[in-house]
Amino acid sequence: VSKQNLRPSHLHRPPDATPQRNAVIYLRVSSKRQLETTADIDPEGNSIATQREVCLSKADKLGAQVVREFVEPGTSAQTIEKRPVFRELLAYLVENPSIDYVVIYMRSRAFRNLGDAVLTKRRLERMQIKLVSAKEDFGEGIMADAMEAVTDIINEVQVRMSGEDIKVKMQHKAERGGTPGRAKLGYKNVRIEHEGRQVNSIALDDERAPLVKQAFELFATGDYTVERLLDTITDLGLTTRATRRFASGPLSRSQLHRLLKDPYYKGVVTYKGELYPGRHDAIVDADLWDAAQRVMERRSKHGQRDRVHYHYLKGMLFCDRCARRGVESRMIFVQAKGRSGQLYDYFACRSRL
Asked: Are the beta carbons of 304 and 295 closer than 8 angstroms?
């Protein structure tokens, strides 16, 4: 008996056997919520789980082994240039010439415009890689190419029409006093009952709204720079809202600056440069908001800068009265002008200013 006959059958392949083919799959969703939706409750392909199941089945029918999976999580970018995972996929194909197929769930999942679809197809063809849609069977040949192009054109038209529809709806919402987008700091998104049905609405954030109002009140006095106000309002407890990506934390200087200039806080909605009376409750009245804007305008005039006072004990003193209440509050070095115009130096507790 020859040694070759003793070798296990799976270690060698007959000369006429089909060579092993390799594939990668690309999965994409438009929102982070769809990342965790299971396939059994999402037959429409709006979740990663559903797309993965269908793409793996398609690769199996092609006789291809899936060697890598690329998941674009929660991005609605209109072009592939704004999708880092898709660019990573293309780089991987260059470094791994053994790939035969790129399997996608549907062309609309991968491409939002005809230009991206054509350029990607040509690029893959030069690498002798076939792009396969798991849910769409276009066949082979010239007519198949034509049907792919028609599908991509229809997808682009639908995306653009959907975008225009959203713009119109957002415009109408703003004109009716609704809040476009997520609730601003000092407010929160809530569900309320309106005419017998649940609708989205905006309500005051009981924890942050009073601090936002206090920020306007302090700044309108003219005694606070934005930097000093930021330190003060942070000590008083104003923080950003926690999100799925970021924990709650102190505001940045730019965030506080935008907050102080935003007319939303006096009950006005801004959309595309136009102002509309809002349905939400105002945190500050118009007079207080206008006073804050006058301070902002005065300090932004050419050649005028906020004064910063320096003292060798700055940042080292803390209020004993606050400490006895279990609150840590720094003492601020302040120069106040008396009636005679003379400047007086003193330290004051931030929480009592």
From this structure: no
